[in-house]
């Protein structure tokens, strides 16, 4: 046990991906290693968290790979320390129940609802537009802050479509509020863990300990036969939907961080004219020297 209690403020989206963090907190695993972790849900997603990292409100964030890479290019003084979820995120492309649009191809040059500029919903709207060979310069956006804002804008016709994780929005598709007209999966691992750069200089060992604990929790959640039912109950989702998501989801339980994948994301962001050029791997990332072993 470490002699001095170190405190970290950690943030992530209030979604099923982050159950391993919640369970580690509830089971007091961090305190057992002399570390105090406080968790905050960020309903505004990656764009809200990159802002919080910049302003020192957050120490550690679990956020979308493309979003933090783009923001580090814009001067965010944080670094990626590991992948968190290695499987792609399945973004649903949603329209309102009464929308005149019935297919993704019909949405060219219409208004995309985004949580904020620089968010995943913003960047993935560009990825989707590029997939359909739309003119990137003609993309239109309405800032809605969060999922509730997206619901409001689509229902009231103030935006035309909205990209959000399809299992999180499934209840609103089921109740007839949204229609889903397509999907846009991320072509890379969906979530990473990012840490403020100054803390990597001063609290490297403690951050490594946090990652070990969470990686062990990820492995336990994935291995448990009870996880599907628990996720469905906690996040008000149907078990049948959670089962599909759960079987597709691969948490990164060993702390790896491949430079080739980081380069791939940067190359796509360059193609989308979101960043100008690639950064060296060590400017974006601070992987630990050895793969993280489970905490006993």
What does the largest sheet look like? 5 strands, mixed
What is the N-to-C succession of helices and strands? EHEHEHEEEHEHEHEEHHHHHH
CATH fold assignment of the largest domain: D-Maltodextrin-Binding Protein, domain 2
Tell me the span between the first and last alpha carbons.
12 Å
CATH superfamily of the largest domain: Periplasmic binding protein-like II
Task: Going across the biggest sheet, name each strand in turn.
Answer: 2-1-3-10-4
Write down the Rg.
19 Å
Helix content: 25-40%
Describe the structure in your own words.
α4 links the parallel β6 (111-114) and β7. This protein folds into two domains: 6-86 and 188-284, Periplasmic binding protein-like II (D-Maltodextrin-Binding Protein, domain 2, 3-Layer(aba) Sandwich); 90-185, 3-Layer(aba) Sandwich (D-Maltodextrin-Binding Protein, domain 2). It has helices spanning 19-26, 46-54, 65-73, 120-131, 147-155, 170-174, 197-202, 204-223, 227-234, 239-248, 259-271, 281-284, and strands spanning 6-12, 35-41, 60-64, 78-85, 90-96, 111-114, 140-143, 161-165, 178-185, 191-196. The chain has twelve helices and ten strands. The N and C termini lie close together (12 Å). 38% of the residues lie in helices and 21% in strands. By secondary structure, the chain is of the alpha/beta class. Strands 2-1-3-10-4 form a five-stranded mixed beta sheet, with helices on both faces. The protein has a five-stranded mixed beta sheet with strand order 7-6-8-5-9, sandwiched between helices. α1 (19-26) crosses α8 (204-223), α3 (65-73) crosses α11 (259-271) and α9 (227-234) crosses α10.
